[in-house]
Specification:
The complex is a heterodimer. By secondary structure, chain A is an alpha/beta fold. Chain A is 32% helix and 23% strand. Chain B is an all-alpha fold. Chain B has a two-stranded antiparallel ribbon. The chains are: A alpha/beta, B mainly alpha. At the A-B interface, helix 2 of A face helix 9 and helix 10 of B.
Chain lengths: 512, 324
Amino acid sequence: MTLDPSLSFAVQGVTRRFPGVLAVDSVDLDVRKGEIHGLIGKNGAGKSVLVSLVAGLLAPSQGQIVTDRGALTPSQSGPSRAKKLGIALVTQEPAFAADLSVADNLFMGRHPGGRLNFLSPGITRQQSADVIGQLGLRARPEDRMGDLPLETQQLLAFGRAVFIEKARTILLDEITASLTSERKESLLRLLRRLINDQPDLSFTLISHHVSEVMGFTDRVSVMRDGERVATLETAKTTGRELADWIVGDVARTEINYTDQPEFSAKPVVKVQALKAGRSLIHLDFELHRGEVLGFAGLEGSGKDAAIEALYGLVPNYGGSIAMDGADVQMKSPKAAQTAGVSFLPKHREEQAVIQNRSVLENAIIAGLPVLTNRLGFVRRAECEAVARSIVTRLKVKTPGLDVPIDGLSGGNKQKILLGRLSLTAPRLVLLNEPTRGVDISAKPDILKMIREDLSRDAGVIMISESEEELAEICDRILIFYQGRVVRELKRGKPGFDVETIYKAIQGVEVPA
Amino acid sequence: MTSVNKFIFLVLEKHLIWALLALLCLAGLAVPGFLSARNILNVMWAAAPLGCMVLGLFFVLLTANVDLSLESTFALAPALAIVLFFQSLSLDSYPILAVLGTLLFGALAGLVNGIFSVKLRVSSFLVSLGTMLLMRGIVVYLIPEGIYYLPEGYVYLGSAKLFGIMPVAVLVWIAIFLVAWLLIDRHRLGKDILALGNNEHAAFVAGVNIERTKIICFAIAGFLASLGGLLEVGRLESVVADMGQGDIMMVFAGTILGGTAMTGGKGNVGGVFAAVLVIAIIENLMNLHGVPPSIRQVVFGAVLLVAIYLASLQERLRHARLES
């Protein structure tokens, strides 16, 4: 339980198991006082779980997290204990009450009470104004939190941790992701100044952006597959070296790639100078029947905006979209559907699954226009046949067609949703993270279905956070960076591998 | 935007209910007999019991819960106190005990609702639907024919008038709104209520005692409903078995008209106060106009519909202003 006095906190042999998954595997990590420590790794590498363990949101299965005020152990954990130890977590999406004022949010749960717990609004106002001033923000204590830009809210959450909770060990989870470069600079200066004033502070910066970690930190630890694989002095390393550590030795996946897309035929989709929302600046591409095109990029790189514009979710997009040579206005999802586009949203439970209804209904809902007679009555037998074919073809594990879909696993739900996409015979299929929240055993089935079924008569565009998946099933991959396509990778050409994709996504220079 | 436009926007966005109130008063000017001190005070006197229930529901709605049983507590708390203290114990010479008993029973009824829905995690709509029916049943069992002769001390708060004109009930009503304003705006409890109603997870992470705060709100609501019942019993100088039955809809109307969100975490005491006045004045104007009782409810429903629609515009106006 003893802790080197120069350390802010130490993770000692911490393991965290979830059913069937070893998320964090006997990790040791020391973060020094006065240090900005980077924690980097790919999605699923275990860094978020590790951070949750340090912040007390999860209890470790084994091992402990030690600070000089005490430790978090498997039996003694929890957010309030972590707070007592001086640990604070600032997340990407701050937990604030949107309708309340800035001051009320900053002091939530710790309003300084006077006599009989009545408040002195003057004091909280004054202190809130101080925090805002320290952070150099444009906001007033009485402003409604929800009206402020997200980045201001993030910085306020940071301010709450530092100035109001007076935490000593501060974990910053991806908070720099949405900041402008100017803001990043001023945040960095602020971190340095705070450390200068209070040398016992430490900041741990969680990120999957190589460039940020390189620019921000003193040391950086790399997580891969639940383990800490390296801790490097930032000044003595390079972005290339760091990216190598992050990716590791990738076992090349087996590619079951047989059909050749009709590259010589006319493209099924042709997009010119597409501009959508704030994040997508410019996009040109063509997509052929039978082709699987991957969109890869960081959050906010424009890949999501592109796919949303193609499905009519960004009505005031710029540029032109043509399908089979004819210009189409994607004004609404309805217009997109009429044009032959179908779409799998990213958030399955909120945006695609009809909760509490049967597997059958969920399987056929998109096909209802072709499964009803002229009076709008549903042809029950045909529906059953369609649903049954989806279930058998995709090997969906379900006790029957009439059970509520809620009981199925994530992977099986996703198979039903993918199955129903093809009911309307689309020409363009858009998939936003089709393997999100899907158990490992179901992934190969889903990828095979995308490759072999969905792309048979249509062009497929797929977004995935997993470079391995993209390399496994795509014919081409467009790499988005800051609103533009910076590289195009083709199957069979040099550079079509996980490592190159990862580095290109990060904006790290790679020789073409 | 010109400053006039800005002013109009501000009024519509933040003080719509007061604008509505002013409008109604203007309309009232044309009605003889409306703008006399006596009439206004009578309007407020009649509105005070409803006002208490509305304030009670306001606390519960802020936590994103509902309490339908307030209308039954409204009758049960006084009925129980009267039967217990005057009929069973014959304590007619100590009416203050019955008054305190009434308020205690109300708070207990609220507490039970709160504990059931919060601790047992049952939807408060269902819990309070059950307790609404149950408590009404008890009232009918206790006083099937009503009670018409009550000790003077017990009806004092509801019936007495200071200087022959100022009903004590109106003062009580104003006083509880002031206390409620203090609680919501200037007390830690109010900050906790608003925080948890707005974002329960954020409040939990920030260390707010979620369950206790919610239960307190239910207890406050029950207390206020019984206070409303006490005022109503006093005003009518009697208690009958169907007192308050069906009133909960009007209570909802008032609370929501006052700008309280059913989703929790949003609302202000002043707005709720004004909304009760709006409802009372509409009723009074219809009386003075001689609108036939058969059509009164139709008019009332239509007016409420429009008013609630206008109130719902506030959110959109706010967005419009932010974008401009």
